[in-house]
Amino acid sequence: MLKIKSYVKVNSLAEAYELNQKKTARILGGMVWMKMGNRAISTAIDLSGLGMDAISENDDEFVIGCMTPLHDLETNEALNTYTHGAMKESLCHIVGVQFRNCATVGGSIYGRYGFSDVLTMFLGMDTWVELYDAGRIPLTEFVNMKKDNDILVNIIVRKEPLLTCYLSQRNIKTDFPVLTCAASVIGNEARTVIGARPARAMIVEDKKQILKNFRNMTKKQKEEAIEAFAEYAAENVPTAGNMRGSKEYRTLLVKVLTRRAWEAVGGMKMNINFWLNGVNRHAEIFPDTLLIDFLREQGCFSVKRGCETANCGLCTVLMDGRPVLSCSTLAARIEGKKIVTLEGMQREAQEFGSFLANEGAEQCGFCNPGFIMNVFAMLNEIKDPTEEQIKEYLAGNLCRCSGFVSQTRSILKFLKYKKAQEEA
User: Which of 11, 19, 69, 314 is at 20 to 30 A from 335, Cα to Cα?
Assistant: First the structure.
């Protein structure tokens, strides 16, 4: 539990600095992490009245006040243009908008938390911190300094020519990251940052100069350099395990995210043209993007991740009318094809769903989207299926709740209902 003896909303940085010299005094940022610990604070120092919550820009740099909420960074047009959208990508998965309106960039940087998306992103740029007493210090130096009683005033991002990409892996969308990665070309310097190892973010030193002169490499040279550096990073980035992922999983992610990030920086994504639920779409993807991940990025959350072994059928979608497992299909393969998910079959799903509910086949409902997609694929392929044909066609859809009897019964009653409608 957090206990505060005295609260002071200061009138100047000088006052804040003087108060902060006491060992048990604390500067208040957004407080979203501070309140999670057990601590007694003699003096809570609030900087919110000093106007330090703004982002300013000149020809040479961005100056970001320490009290600027993360959501302001996320929505700042100039920062997102400079970082090619990487700033927004590094922030938009952190819990929720309310949280990001509370959490401050100063608290995130000063805290140097191991799980910090913010620290990884800013290390991927030419970033400096401005301290009240010590002045300007490169973030690359500050990140390894011991915490002291100085006050972080501003974060400065110098406007060096920048190519950058930010990626993270999360078990669920708004959870802490399992691993974070920023790949950047800052001027002529290639820099790779890996965070949430689960230790704090670190720059991967390219001792072999694998990515040297990356901007001027040919496509083939980039491909070879990226593959070699991804292997190098996995061998040289220390990782550990915790509740979100094992050491071995994180080491694998170092390789995968490093490769993907540098492919994006090197302009090596693929362009695809496809139809999704009747709408023509265009997208950029990585060559190894799975269809399930791609469709969920497009907002098709009916496509569920289940077994990850191509056995449960939860991820079933229709590709040119045929049911396929999106967990085992590369997104690259949908080029020129028509993809249908449950979002594109709402009327049919609602009609058949009532039969599932009436027969007690709908319990937790998690498997229903994939099951319903396969039912309609079957009905398109087999006009009047027998009970045996139904069981055979739907053998690839697993359900842990119903035992399948009620599902089969609901299909047979639905077929009888549709036949009566046709004859009427």
Answer: 314
